[in-house]
């Protein structure tokens, strides 16, 4: 009889333990996280989705991914945020196409108790999101600007002809930060650090909004070469834009003629372009890490109410950046394309 009671107690205890474990699993499974990227075709955002998916699977939470139909598509991102609000998401990770236009939808999500983290591209204003996990884009731009100036030397930098292939006319925050960082690194008076086009340096041939795409880079380079065929420095918002710019230079017979192309991203194709001499230097960032940390932050918030904190001295969490070039210069720490290929886009 005693053994029977003991057995019954063990069964009951085991059943309770199973129930508690099941309840814990269900609670974890109930955590829905949304990832909303600018597009689903750019390799940068593909890697970001990969990082979020891996971490969500590891932590046993549900991830739903959405993307704009094209770079700059705010309407599709607004719809995605609204769908995630209706679905009861605990957190939203977003790379905004329109850093101002998306803010009202983000506010609705936050009002619903959803943690919103901007990835890569800060909202405008930055505190419209609960947190931002990003590259220090101003530093990324400053690194490639300083590299270009040091590579040309003092006299070369003073007489440079600079074409800038930016992203969008609306000047999203990441676009501005990289552009202005480049200018400061090169030694150009940037005026208002939150806007470009207010500079008056005669070395600047012009700006072109290339949309972050290869075809835009090609068209933009063709357009700016018509303004000044002596252009010898080309800043590009990202590496697909740089690839397009190179094709335009090649078609004009200017490849290998001393034109310096610099960029930001550090994706594997871009790093290979550094190795091949197409891009002189790029600044490598880490989207997989951004998204992975974002998922971890949402889970911590959902379970314990813990809010993500920024890097000390900054208004965002800095996920790191490294200058990549096979032609290092004194005074600037950098890594080679061979080293960068082992890191792209971790």
Report what the structure shows.
- The chain is α/β, with parallel strands linked by helices.
- Helices cover 47% and strands 16% of the residues.
- It has helices spanning 2-29, 43-59, 74-87, 103-111, 137-158, 173-186, 214-227, 239-251, 268-275, 287-304, 337-341, and strands at 32-37, 62-67, 91-94, 115-119, 131-134, 162-166, 204-209, 233-236, 260-265, 281-284, 317-318, 322-325.
- The strands form two sheets. The chain has a six-stranded parallel beta sheet, sandwiched between helices. A six-stranded mixed beta sheet has the order 7-6-8-9-10-12, sandwiched between helices.
- Strand 8, helix 8 (239-251) and strand 9 (260-265) form a beta-alpha-beta unit.
- Helix 5 (137-158) runs parallel beside helix 6 (173-186).
- The termini are far apart.
- 51% of the residues are buried.
- The model is unreliable at 1-27 (pLDDT under 50).
For the report, how would you describe the main beta sheet? 6 strands, parallel
Can you give the helix content as a percent range? 40-55%
Give helix and strand order, one letter per element, not per position. HEHEHEHEEHEHEHEHEHEHEEH
By helix and strand content, what is the structural category? alpha/beta
Task: Tell me, rounded to a whole number, the average pLDDT.
Answer: 91
Beta fraction of the residues? 15-25%
Radius of gyration: 24 Å
Uncertain runs: 1-27
Across the major sheet, the strand order is: 2-1-3-4-5-11
Distance linking N and C termini: 62 Å
Shape call? elongated
Could you give the count of β-strands?
12
Number of contiguous helices: 11
């Amino acid at each position: 009889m005693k053994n029977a009671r003991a057995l019954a107690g063990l069964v009951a205890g085991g059943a309770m333990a199973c129930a508690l474990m099941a309840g814990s699993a269900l609670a974890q499974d109930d955590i829905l996280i949304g990832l909303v990227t600018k597009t689903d075709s750019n390799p940068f955002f593909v890697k970001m989705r990969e990082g979020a998916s891996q971490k969500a699977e590891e932590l046993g939470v549900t991830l739903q991914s959405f993307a704009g139909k094209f770079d700059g598509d705010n309407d599709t991102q607004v719809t995605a945020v609204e769908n995630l609000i209706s679905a009861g998401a605990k957190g939203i990770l977003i790379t905004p196409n329109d850093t101002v236009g998306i803010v009202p939808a983000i506010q609705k999500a936050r009002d619903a108790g959803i943690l919103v983290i901007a990835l890569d591209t800060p909202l405008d204003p930055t505190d419209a999101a609960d947190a931002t996990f990003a590259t220090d884009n101003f530093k990324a731009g400053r690194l490639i600007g300083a590299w270009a100036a040091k590579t040309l030397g003092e006299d070369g930098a003073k007489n440079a002809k600079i074409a800038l292939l930016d992203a969008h006319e609306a000047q999203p925050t990441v676009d501005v930060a990289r552009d202005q960082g480049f200018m400061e690194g090169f030694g150009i008076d940037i005026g208002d650090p939150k806007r470009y086009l207010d500079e008056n340096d005669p070395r600047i041939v012009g700006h072109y909004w290339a949309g972050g795409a290869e075809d835009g880079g090609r068209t933009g380079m063709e357009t700016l070469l018509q303004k000044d065929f002596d252009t010898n420095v080309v800043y590009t918002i990202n590496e697909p834009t740089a690839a397009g710019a190179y094709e335009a230079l090649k078609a004009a017979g200017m490849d290998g003629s001393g034109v310096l192309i610099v960029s930001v991203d550090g994706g594997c194709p871009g790093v290979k372009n550094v190795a091949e001499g197409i891009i002189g230097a790029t600044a490598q960032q880490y989207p997989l890490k951004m998204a992975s940390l974002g998922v971890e932050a949402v889970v911590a918030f959902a379970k314990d109410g813990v809010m993500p904190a920024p890097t000390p001295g900054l208004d965002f969490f800095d996920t790191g950046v490294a200058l990549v070039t096979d032609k290092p210069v004194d005074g600037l720490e950098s890594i080679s394309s061979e080293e960068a290929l082992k890191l792209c886009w971790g």
